[in-house]
């Protein structure tokens, strides 16, 4: 089996509630329509029995010892596969991105799932979807699930939306161990002499004193080339035992995977046992942890360990960076993350394979699922197969980061971008009224209005142009809603093609599954055979400010950028610390191409304000803040948990959607 | 297969590093001794390849659809098994408890593992060990692993000690969702009118307003027998929308599974978005969550859901209890816990089956593994088989709670108590010098000293007498160390038998595996056929104070108890709230029979001071505090993570012990 890729991905199953095959969305069968419109995502998910994950794994060419099964429907896939298939050519690599969305989202996940269902079950092409794991916090807050929806979703959706295989829990554990280590270390340094610290850090065990491996590494970094603890001078001991962390510079925060707004700002250390070393801190939602960004970008266990060690958590009192490695915790973090690094295999409603792996924030991080899942999937589908993955937010953010950060980390070259648009979002960009989550849509969105659509296509055009900056062909996928008129649909497709899209097709995957995305699949297949001249947007060697300016001007259409004094001094510090050659991860609103969410369409003439600049050194990027980014959601007055229940007899979950 | 129990538990495997069979501990082979003494627990664990968990599951009579495999060596077992085997008679039920321990621990876990290894592989009797899942916090702090040790451990020990199958992570998620819900609810009530709260809690969806199931339940509890949201009076609306929580009475704390001392006392809500509603709070280690105690005591999914709903998190401003059910979160908590309720199957070094399930604190909770794991194991071993489980701390605490709390919840009747003693602990009780973790043992403990042993046997005698209060036969297991002399060993066994033990035998399971516990297994088998007149120590109908007094006097040997005014007022409140009939879970030091850790042997004449009384209503017990109990450990100057590492090539974990 060495070197063999999968022999087939023909996973389509008989559905208990069959999708209407070959019908257009305008004339659905009434009985089926009733089922679709009155069924929640979880009901549709449950109506389909997933195949056993070991069967799925065998279908796609995995060997028995390459998977670790978690229950009936999930399995982790071992990285050893990459070694076995290293001579296998990669498949085609497709990114699903979107136009500037409404707050409701325009359906990138459903397009991703619909597209692989169409490719695999309808065009007989091996394909794989690589998706992000959602945070559990919003599942119980306002959002409900995130497994796609309708007939284009990952099943079982409750497994997808809840603990999955524990990756986010592992991140939480690793993140918080490091946080605890920082404060405990400061306390111990503040309350002990050099000698006492040394005696405890390098204790006598069975009559002998020895450095641990990670302590020897620290000594080498400090330029102390000694291995016998008895030979250090007092000055060397002091250098060794004191990290001398400046508490006001700590950037490492604790995390929970819960929407807990009361943890946005807290004071810690108020018990007597902490001897008055209180400080103000915050908790972020777990997926905002730098460890999540590392999981998404890492390429191997060795690489992950190195990245974990390089994470900068604070500066010392001389302004030098203090890392996880300095705290002696790299190995423990790697141990906590040893299973999380393996992608989780699941399936779509039509039995197509899916990897769910990593889900970093799309503002303070890069918002893309993992490099490792993509790499493994590209080997598994074989040279003619397709791997479809998704970038968070609009193409100006998610796609730009996908190319400049994720593709740089992986070395992979994308074949096609699918740009998802909706008539609803285009009307908003054309001047339609506000779209707000929870409020009913205004009539502009439910009745035909060709003018609003035509005016809004400027945003689509701009996002197409952004894609073209990177030299990759773009196919527009118009995610059709039942209120869209045929004339509106035709208009969007026509304007998209006039704007330079390779093709533009309407999709009905939500209501019709893979069958509703067959045209999209055909267009993507053709586009993948086009000439591809992929390139990054900027060279890493440019100064940080220059890289920010290129993104702001070329992608967002800003006139220029303006750095606050804080931002400028952070840029200077990172440059001086040797971090100037990292790529840039912009933390900007996704609701506008500009920094002002209310400016729809294609804003021009604005100066992009950079309020602060931060760094995720382990993940490997600098992130400029354009405005304030919330890293901890809250619970509303009526959280969705009011509807969530478990049937104690059937063990079925109710109320996720 | 319906109704069939397991056909055999003969799981002994060829060991790469064989245990010395039939040798006494005094004359070990030199080469083997070197291996044992220079091997860490993780090296011994790794030297043995565990059998695949599906093979193990088949051996013990589980059907394919009754297990959910997690990787190669762990599986969750479905509760449906209890229904299939409901007519199968239970096996014998053995509790491993201990004398009052030194801070080093006396080896209850190793005895538990050694005993089942001896029963299964050497006496050919089906047996099962049921163990607690350890908290991950101490694994990286001071303690290292908790899977037993030497040749009597659960393998792979790194899987046992790390995430396992995610149960503690699920508890953390559920615990913290409830915590977030409490603070968010207070904020929303404080910032909105009744009308606005009602509009949000019972929103108009598709033109209609409806209560969710959990809101209808709340209306019924409030005596409002209406189902149409439009018909509530203003007064009824106000009653419905306002939980009116008194923030000063909140007892529900957030948790993390990390030793993070800076979270012992914190102030939350300091961001502007929380509008000044700051309050002081604390984080506990995850295993201190009431949800962990519920997991350990629950008997079914339905029962767990009811217990989760009944958890009291605070009082309202009238002094009435506010529950998780009032907050509308019961169903969501049950959903988060739906997999955690299934015990995890693993194996010992000799291939004997082990359930790892739940690990509540042994002071503020009852310190015993789960009722469900015991129940399932008792069916699986069959009528002649043995299930061995363990109680935290000394018998005065762990065993007393096992009988009065856990056996009451399960209805199970124990057959035998194994009381673990060491020469070391007995010498300490006989007046030997202090034993401190991390410091070398004084010579009294490494050289023969029959007088200290003889004097210290009073503690063993007292713990035997405590066991006899419950009418269960007791076998003393002397956990032999290499420094114990034959005369010391003989003396302990003789005095134990004179004190009323059914038998007393030396055990060498740590160095010799199951073979080292064969005599213990034979004694336990005989004892299990003795007359058993098991009884609880007190009736639930007695007043709270009376129940506390019975435990203090009969078990601890106190002269009397003394309640602080706070404790008395809490007793009055719980009694008035209708919680007076719950069993008592004493939160007392385990280092003495009294409340003073330094008083060894058998202290007398003391008055047990009850400083406070708290309640875990969902778990179902009242817990009086005897002194201060820390619910959040810290990291020392040199946490064990300095030694923990992951080999990126072999993926092996190093440095756990």
Q: What is the topological layout?
A:
The structure is a homodimer of 657-residue chains.
Chain A: H1 30-38, H2 41-47, H3 53-59, E1 67-70, E2 74-77, H4 80-84, E3 92-98, H5 108-122, E4 127-131, H6 136-139, E5 148-149, E6 152-155, H7 157-161, H8 167-191, H9 194-201, E7 204-205, E8 208-209, H10 213-221, H11 234-241, E9 254-256, E10 266-268, E11 279-281, E12 283-285, H12 290-297, H13 301-310, E13 312-315, E14 321-323, H14 330-336, E15 344-348, E16 353-356, H15 371-381, E17 386-390, H16 395-410, E18 416-421, H17 423-429, H18 443-446, H19 450-469, E19 474-479, H20 486-498, E20 503-507, H21 509-512, H22 518-528, H23 544-556, E21 560-563, H24 565-576, E22 607-610, E23 612-616, E24 621-625, E25 645-646, E26 653-654
Helix pairs in contact in A: 5-22, 8-14, 9-11, 13-14, 17-19, 19-20
Q: How would you describe what is shown here?
A:
- 2 copies of one chain form a homodimer.
- Chain A is of the alpha/beta class and 657 residues long.
- Chain A has 24 helices and 26 strands.
- In chain A, strands 1, 2, 3, 4, 5, 6, 15, 16, 17, 18, 19 and 20 form a 12-stranded mixed sheet that branches.
- Chain A is globular and about 80 Å long.
- Chain A starts with 29 loop residues before the first helix and ends with a strand.
- Chains A and B meet through strand 1, helix 8, helix 9, helix 10 and strand 10 of A and strand 1, helix 8, helix 9, helix 10 and strand 10 of B.
